[in-house]
Amino acid sequence: MKRTVFLGTPAFAVPSLEAVDRLCDRGALQLVAVVTQPDRAGDRGRLSVPAVKDRALAFGVPVLQPARLDDAALRDIAALRPELLVWAAYGTRIPRSLLESVKGRAVNVHASLLPRWRGAAPIAHAILAGDDETGVTLMEGTAGLDEGPILAQERTPIGEAESAGDLTRRLAVLGAGLLERELPRYIAGELSGSPQDASLATAAPKLTSREGELDFAKPADELARRVRALTPEPGAWTTFRGAHDDRRGLGARFARDHGSAPALVVRRPTYGPGVAGRVVTGTFVSILRVKGSRVRSQYPPPPAGERSTAICSLPCVNAVHSTTF
């Protein structure tokens, strides 16, 4: 059995780790360790533990958490005598020396149909671009950024109301299924990769909070995609009354079915002003709270049945409407 080291960090990688663990139970490989990013300070100073670490410890698998894959970390991994690397969303590139130590026997689960959307945020960029479909790619791991030969792919449509968070969860399961199905064939030498067409490659760099700003001069469908693409993190936002600092509660959403046309709907706060916004056709946007002078937006909409007031139900996408109540 191939001595296997799994590398991964966020929740996206957990189903792939579970797939590797099932293959281990079936005797297809031996899972000797999991490498993940270090625990980090989270909200309000609480320690945030990588999702992969939690799952690996539940399996009883040794966990390594190097701050970086430097010489010391590589020596620790080499001491495990790995023969195969498997990774999914580890969080940094895998050094060439580590790949060479396993004679290039490495596979990576990536959340796009490569060569489209190489990089850290392929799911968000697929939504932002208005792609009709996306998928997962199982590729041979290389030192380049998502440049390895493609071993297998699986496609799936992107739902018109699907957020990045929703799609991430679906692709995590889809990628794990692909890994569990194809990795035994790769180990047996029955699966070879096909080179990527670099001329078709597109970049998917990590998105920052600055890119979450909603510019209401943009078309409505573009605004809707931006909210979906940046939910849950880093979140979409817009200014409220310029630099006015209003920390009071506010809620709003774009409703698909309100009267004769979709409309911006505001949930009544217990106090404070209303909201300025634009109609977005055929989608929802939930503005959950005011933080400083920014209105923080999230997706999907608040639970059904919440009391709400329609600000506009006109079938337009360019007029800006406001009210105070």
CATH topology of the largest domain: Rossmann fold
**Any guess at the CATH architecture of the largest domain?**
3-Layer(aba) Sandwich
Give the uncertain stretches in residue-range form: 243-303, 305-325
Number of domains: 2
Largest sheet: number of strands, sense, barrel closure: 7 strands, mixed
- SSE sequence, one letter per element: EHEEEHEHEHEHEEHHEEEEEEEE
Could you tell me the radius of gyration in angstroms?
23 Å
Helix percent reads 10-25%
**What structural class do the secondary elements suggest?**
alpha/beta
Taking the alpha carbons of the first and last residues, their distance comes to 68 Å
Strand content: 15-25%
Average the pLDDT over all residues and give the rounded result. 80
Q: Which CATH first-tier class of the largest domain would you pick?
A: Alpha Beta
The CATH superfamily title of the largest domain? Formyl transferase, N-terminal domain
Q: Count the DSSP helices.
A: 7
Q: Number of DSSP strands?
A: 17
The gross shape turns out to be globular
Strands of the widest sheet, in order across it, are 5-2-1-6-7-8-9
